[in-house]
Please model this.
Amino acid sequence: MRNNSRFAHVQTFDIDRVAAAAGADPDVLRMENLDTDVPPPPNAVTATAQALATGQGNSWLPFNGLPVLREAIAADLRERTGHDYDPARQIVVTSSGTAAVMPVLLATTEPGQRVVLTDPTYAGLLQRVRLADARPYLVPLRVDGGMWRLDRDALAQVTEAAAIIMMSPSMPAGVVLTHEDWTAVAEACERLDAYLIYDAAMERIVFDGHPRINPCRVDGLAARTIVIGSVSKEYRMIGWRIGWVAGPADILSRVLTAVTYNTTVASGFAQIGAAVALSEPSGVAEAVAEYQARHEAVVRQLDGLPLVRAAGGWACLVDAEELGIGARELSDRLLSHGRIAATPMTAWGEEVARRYVRLVYSNEPVKRLNELRDRFTAALP
Model:
């Protein structure tokens, strides 16, 4: 059987491996996967159920998404970005935010062109760059004062790229980009004539004291920015698998072609629920407060260990090598000795990422997280 070069450097998430090893043991702290026990908006659940009962959305059309959802996305983007997006020409609904990444890469890059990401970054972004036959170029995140910071000097040294992919808050590190960071991104995009692909999946999951800045509000970025959003994180609607792309009309026409010939159309039932989540109160602030409380519980429990605080998001990272052990071995020991399922970041970047193990706190309440120190102590060599 012939090899396929697109898959030569693609790595697995490792999430499923850790989850399978953990099994269904209720004693295990489930910190390997981005599920959440914070419920989705009840109004969205009701709207979805009603759509199922009445047959609304049970159609192949329209390929770019139901008008009610595209209009809700446009209204949400107007509030976030300060810009108006034409629901008919500048917004395409996709089967989740992650499913939007490949069509956007196909629309913005040629084979062999460079795409800039951070190290660490979400493995679903990094590996899709490889599958799109583009070349990832990783700019490191650095730990400064116990928090992650973008290495702006390293970004300024990039000499060529077709696109820059950024996420704020990011997965898996939880870095929140400052206005100075976004200005550096804008300068890089202008210098390189590159698009900014902005994964906004967690934009509002930001903790107290940290900025929440949409890049489209930064001078020079709006015209170059392609926004990828979804209802999975902010609205806790993981199983709906609804996302979207918004941006310049010429790029969105290409995105729509790629989406249509891949998935044809996202679930109509789920689109109706997503439209309600975007249009009505959906408990985002309350959910963020709960995630922040869980993050602080993790920080308290692991005080004195090489944990890097997150400024937002659903997870934070612990430096396995600082503990004198490899990330894969620490992940294995946490499960076998501490009953903690946690994913090594070996597929989530390069030199920086491979040092770390991710601790997801979105699916474990504070009461259970308060057992974390004892479990870690049992796991460390």
